[in-house]
Specification:
With about 350 residues, the protein is mostly beta strands. Helices cover about 10% and strands about 50% of the residues.
């Protein structure tokens, strides 16, 4: 048991110093996990959008860090408030797979048209944070273990609590604009997650608040040739999408900046990711994907990205892989009728069409 005790002591010291246990996963594919960051993006585009994403970090290590994201949102402008409804599920492991965290939330956004070319959304997410620890990993008898070799009898006494459940909330806002010709659009967003810093401690005498996560982002989408018509899935025109994402949580700040480009359904991207604070790392991220339109206003998009560490302790851990799958049903609606009357007429409706045509 000595080797295992030493291992967990060192692991605990490492996480205490870097504060990694209190950090949420930082996804490279920001737009494919957007509901994890800002609930105001719920229903930002019309129709139903379903996103699956998985991240495998440090694959060269014996025990990797895996994260999973599921997000779905439905925008129906016939809904009161002309916003959207969403569902978000996040899961990840911490340490050596004996600590697992889940976050399940429902999001709602309202849409506020400012002018014929500018619209804003305000969103809120209410959810449940569940964290589970497998105390059995600390209890071993005289046996061989592939990870820790020979283990001696353990005098460890299991604490009473193996799972915690805490309410968790997030709020955010986003503003979108499009130029008169419909060739250029922009988005600016700001959000805060874990609004009330839920306590993650398993010990009744302990206190481990999950730090608030602040996220700010901005991006532009420029269509090299202006669109004509109403088909939001046209892919023959090249689109360029530069952007920046700034995140701060606890004592670690993250900066992502780069550009995506798409033409004929093919996606390519090059991004820089830097993490600063107690823990520091510089990473180059490569993104590639393809969108297949299998019916009018219906598509599926597959994206892969690889993070190549340039410095820091992650340089020799194999980087990180992300794979995502996005399903889009752009004309799906739940409510019939003319809710557009409450949406101030055809101006915002035209704005929706232009934004959809420029969406990546």
């Amino acid at each position: 048991m000595i080797k295992k005790n030493v291992f967990f002591i060192l692991l605990g010291v490492y996480f205490s110093v870097t504060n990694l246990l209190a950090q949420d996963p930082v996804y490279t594919q920001f737009t494919n996990s957007i509901l994890s960051y800002n609930p105001a993006y719920t229903g930002i585009y019309e129709g139903l959008h379903i996103r699956f994403l998985t991240r495998n970090q440090a694959p060269a290590l014996e025990t990797t860090f895996r994260s999973y994201h599921f997000g779905a949102d439905l925008a129906d402008r016939n809904l009161p408030g002309s916003g959207g409804l969403g569902l978000v599920v996040n899961a990840d492991n911490e340490g050596t797979m004996f600590v697992n965290k889940y976050n399940l939330g429902a999001s709602f956004a309202v849409r506020v048209p400012f002018t014929r070319s500018i619209v804003g959304q305000l969103g809120i997410k209410a959810g449940l944070l569940r964290k589970y620890i497998d105390w059995a990993e600390f209890e071993r008898s005289k046996t061989n273990d592939d990870r820790y070799e020979y283990l001696y009898d353990s005098a460890y006494v299991r604490p009473d609590v193996s799972a915690i459940n805490r309410p968790d909330f997030a709020v955010g806002g986003v503003v979108q604009f499009v130029n008169g010709k419909g060739c250029l659009s922009g988005t600016v967003g700001l959000s805060v997650d874990h609004l009330f810093e839920p306590d993650e401690s398993f010990l009744q005498t302990g206190n481990a608040p999950l730090p608030r996560k602040w996220t700010a982002n901005a991006d532009l989408v420029w269509s090299v040739k202006c669109h004509s018509g109403n088909n939001a899935l046209k892919s023959s025109v090249m689109k360029l999408n530069p952007g920046i994402v700034i995140q701060h949580q606890g004592n670690i700040s993250t900066l992502m900046a780069g550009m995506n480009a798409t033409k004929y359904g093919l996606y390519l991207g090059l991004w820089y990711k830097g993490e600063f604070g107690t823990y520091q790392c510089n990473t180059t991220s490569l993104i590639a994907g393809y969108r297949y339109v299998f019916a009018e206003n219906m598509s599926i998009k597959f994206t892969y990205s690889y993070d190549k560490p340039l410095s820091g302790i992650e340089k020799k851990n194999g980087g990180a892989h992300e794979i995502s799958l996005v399903l889009e049903f752009n004309t799906l609606k739940l409510f019939k009728g003319s809710g557009r009357a409450a949406y101030h007429g055809s101006g915002p409706q035209l704005l929706d069409t232009q934004l959809a045509q420029l969406a990546l």
